[in-house]
Write a structure and sequence with these properties.
Elements (H helix, E strand, L loop, with lengths): L2 E9 L7 E9 L9 E2 L4 E6 L7 E4 L2 E2 L11 E6 L6 E3 L4 E4 L10 E9 L7 E11 L7 E2 L2 E8 L6 E5 L2 E2 L8 E4 L7 E3 L5 E4 L6 E10 L4 E13 L1 H4 L3 E5 L4 H20 L6 E9 L6 E8 L8 H10 L1 H4 L5 E5 L13 E16 L3 E14 L2
Pfam families: Cadherin (PF00028)
Keywords: Calcium, Membrane, Repeat, Transmembrane, Transmembrane helix
Subcellular location: Membrane
């Protein structure tokens, strides 16, 4: 307990008795009676041969139960095991290589490390660090090509994480890092540690081929990453049709079904090869395992097919569509279960272009805006 706060009252013997009180704060001064503590108590680390001088091998973690002036900063010293000065230890407790290690020369080092606190008198603790030297990388990293589809409302893309590169390496101790060519950094970024791809705001309509690579420190491998950006037109929203699917998650839909469904849909509803199918958004139905997909079809001449025409086409082709994925319903108007005649049901669709949903798999990522369906029955 570092301190106490007491309220002391004095009362006299008069009639009536009078009193007053005062607060007394008692601070307990700390004595440096706790040694630094290593976590864990002992360490094991590895370093690959031929890594450059200064490679980080290990971060020591030290705590102290004393107050701050009796604890850090700590002073680290390698007591034994470093007679040939193969290692250095910086003031922050990072163990680094001071030579280029060779697996054939030595496969293991054991260091005794001391940590000394800042108290008076100083307290010390010791830990042992076992460092194994392993052979350098013999396998190149492998990465899965990634295709990203972004749907946004006209010049209103806010940016964010749009996908993740999946890479592996058969060398157990390899640490993979990801890089993006500098000329593309004005539009995209890649997290060097986990391979997440971030798009900055204001992407224009079109196709982007990213120059991304993954490295294990020895081998560098290029990765095919293609980003398609499609900007929605307001007229699309007025001519959308919703297909509701049964028992499918957004990620499974994107990774397993979207490509095949897009091809089957094109065959079912396009009158001419030059017509364009636009998948606007996908979104789980709240409180269920269903999934809604919004789409519209643009004619070669520039206009859009009416929902009633598309629904008729879909109804005729439903059996073929269900060879790809199970369909729950095909919706143009949805009156919340009320039995309305078509002409008495009004539906409006709104898009929140600043609330993006990213559904990412190893091969395909789909980024789309959240949508809201407002339905009013005029019966």
């Amino acid at each position: 307990i570092s301190g106490y706060s007491l309220v002391v009252q004095a009362r006299d013997s008069g009639t009536p008795p009078l009193s007053s009180s005062v607060t007394v704060n008692v601070d307990i001064s700390d004595v440096n009676d706790n040694s630094p503590v290593f976590t864990p108590a002992n360490y094991t680390a590895v370093i690959q041969e031929n890594k450059p001088v200064g490679t980080s091998i290990l971060q020591l973690v030290v705590t102290d139960k004393d107050s701050f002036h009796n604890g850090p900063p700590f002073t680290f010293t390698i007591l034994t095991g470093n007679e040939e000065e193969e290692f250095t230890l910086d003031p922050h407790g990072v163990l680094r290589s001071a030579v280029i290690f060779k697996h054939m020369v030595s496969t293991e080092y054991v260091l005794c490390v001391q940590a000394k606190d800042s108290g008076k008198p100083q307290q010390v603790s010791h830990t042992y660090v076992q460092v194994r030297v392993i052979e350098e990388s013999v396998h190149k990293p492998t990465a899965i090509p990634l295709e990203i589809f972004i749907v946004t409302m006209e010049d209103d893309f806010p940016g964010g994480v749009i996908g993740k590169i999946h890479a592996t390496d058969q060398d157990v101790y390899d640490v993979l890092t990801y890089t993006l060519k500098s000329e593309q950094k004005s539009l995209f970024k890649v997290n060097s540690h986990d391979g997440k791809i971030i798009a900055l705001g204001g992407l224009d309509n079109g196709k982007y081929v990213l120059n991304v690579s993954v490295s294990d420190g020895r081998f560098q491998v290029p990765i095919d990453v293609v980003v398609h950006v499609e900007q929605l037109l307001q007229e699309m929203l007025q001519n959308t049709v919703t297909i509701r699917f049964e028992n499918v998650s957004p990620e499974d839909f994107v990774g397993l079904h979207m490509h095949g469904l897009r091809r089957t849909l094109r065959n079912a509803v396009l009158s001419q090869k030059q017509d364009s199918l636009h998948i606007i958004s996908i979104q789980p139905v709240a409180g269920s395992s269903q999934l809604d997909m919004l789409f519209a079809v643009q004619m070669h001449s520039g206009g859009f097919y009416k929902p009633a025409y598309l629904i008729q086409k879909l109804t005729n082709a439903r059996r073929h569509l269900e060879n790809v994925i199970r369909i729950s319903a095909i919706l143009e108007k949805n009156c919340s279960g009320l039995d309305c005649q078509e002409q008495h049901c009004e539906q409006s669709l709104s898009i929140d272009s600043h609330s993006l949903m990213t559904y990412s798999t190893a091969r395909i990522s789909f980024v789309c805006p959240r949508f809201y369906r407002n339905v009013r029955c005029m019966c």
